[in-house]
Design a protein that fits this description.
Order of helices and strands: HEHEHEHEHEHEHEHEEHHEH
Number of domains: 2
Oligomer: single chain
Number of strands: 10
CATH superfamily of the largest domain: Bordetella uptake gene, domain 1
CATH topology of the largest domain: D-Maltodextrin-Binding Protein, domain 2
Distance between the termini: 31 Å
Largest sheet: 10 strands, mixed
CATH architecture of the largest domain: 3-Layer(aba) Sandwich
Length: 324
């Protein structure tokens, strides 16, 4: 029945003028409430303004590092009424999971990229180090005794931790400890049960400002000079990890087979939303940067994700941390 509905819609679009949307558009967030949920709700409001009369509904379908929600969208009717907002997990899970019920580059219609969010390397207040150089020396001397928290397989914090440890080339690897989300992981860090974590500025800025954690570095290629709180933190690249550049991005996706006319209308609304001053201001307040380059197009974003899959593969393979 679902395929018949999709085929019928495709036929209508191919032969005549059409009305879209004809029902609420559901934006699926593959995580519990948190940074991606916040980004999605802000995007929904901006896209609603760009599509007068349209209704956007945000639904959280969490579990398995975002793959349950992603699979829900991959298997949904290809009529443009069920969309996915997902972060870098669209690229990383292709390497992190031995088996996935979908293929990142084959089972979605790419609508465009939304934003990029810097990451910060933070440590427990109990650590003796106060600068990144002191921290690195401490890690190299005590790596086998330290542990690093993350919010679960496939989470942004998990990926960042893997990339940082790989770039460090530690002889004795740390113990990585998965939690059921960012909140529990941060609480363990605050309480000194774990030693360090790497996570998005959307999650860490408040703790850094309150001085309840120690901030050592940012993961971007350049310092965050326009961020009053983080502008003095060095980059990992300038601290000796050449080529280290990681941001957590979000993109918008529809099921494979979504009619081109619907895809075009959604992409037009997305690009209008990304130019909305209110949306831009809200994103900046989160520490995120709205994307303005060719990655906001269908083809540009898909090419970017394909490149990210190739880039992340060797790092994840070397770490040997996979999920079934």
């Amino acid at each position: 029945m679902k395929k018949l509905v999709a085929l019928a819609l495709t036929s209508v679009l191919a032969t005549s003028a059409f009305a879209f949307p004809v029902k609420p558009i559901t934006l699926v967030v593959p995580f519990p409430p948190g940074p991606t949920d916040t980004v999605t709700r802000q995007l929904a409001e901006a896209m609603r303004k760009a599509m007068p009369g349209a209704t956007f509904v945000v639904e959280n379908t969490s579990g398995a590092g975002g793959t349950i929600g992603a699979n829900r969208v991959a298997r949904a009717d290809a009529d443009g009424h069920t969309l996915l907002v997902w972060h870098i997990g669209m690229a990383s899970t292709a390497n992190l999971y031995r088996k996935l019920p979908f293929k990142a580059l084959d089972d979605f219609t790419y609508l465009g990229m939304i934003n990029e969010v810097p990451m910060t390397l933070i440590g427990s207040p109990k650590l003796p180090a106060n600068t990144y150089k002191e921290f690195e020396a401490y890690v190299r001397s005590n790596g086998g005794k330290l542990n690093m928290a993350h919010a679960g397989i496939g989470a942004a914090s998990h990926l960042c931790g893997l990339m940082w440890q790989s770039a460090m080339g530690l002889k004795e690897g740390m113990t990585t400890i998965p939690f059921t989300g960012t909140g529990p992981a941060l609480n363990a860090l605050l309480g000194g049960q774990v030693d360090l974590m790497c996570d998005q500025t959307t999650n860490t800025s408040g703790q850094i400002e309150a001085k309840s954690v120690k901030a050592f570095a940012v993961t971007t290629s350049k310092r965050l000079s326009d961020n009053a709180l983080l502008k003095d933190l060095p980059t990992l690249q300038e601290s000796g990890l050449k080529g280290f550049d990681l941001t957590i991005w979000h993109g918008l996706y529809a099921p494979k087979g979504t009619p081109a006319a619907v895809s075009k209308q959604l992409n037009t609304a997305l690009q209008a939303a990304l130019k909305d001053p209110e949306f831009i201001a809200k994103q900046k307040a989160l520490g995120a940067v709205v994307v303005t380059d060719k990655r906001v197009t269908n083809e540009g974003h898909k090419a970017f994700v394909a490149d990210q899959i190739k880039k992340l593969g060797p790092v994840i393979d070397a770490a040997g941390q996979f999920a079934d």
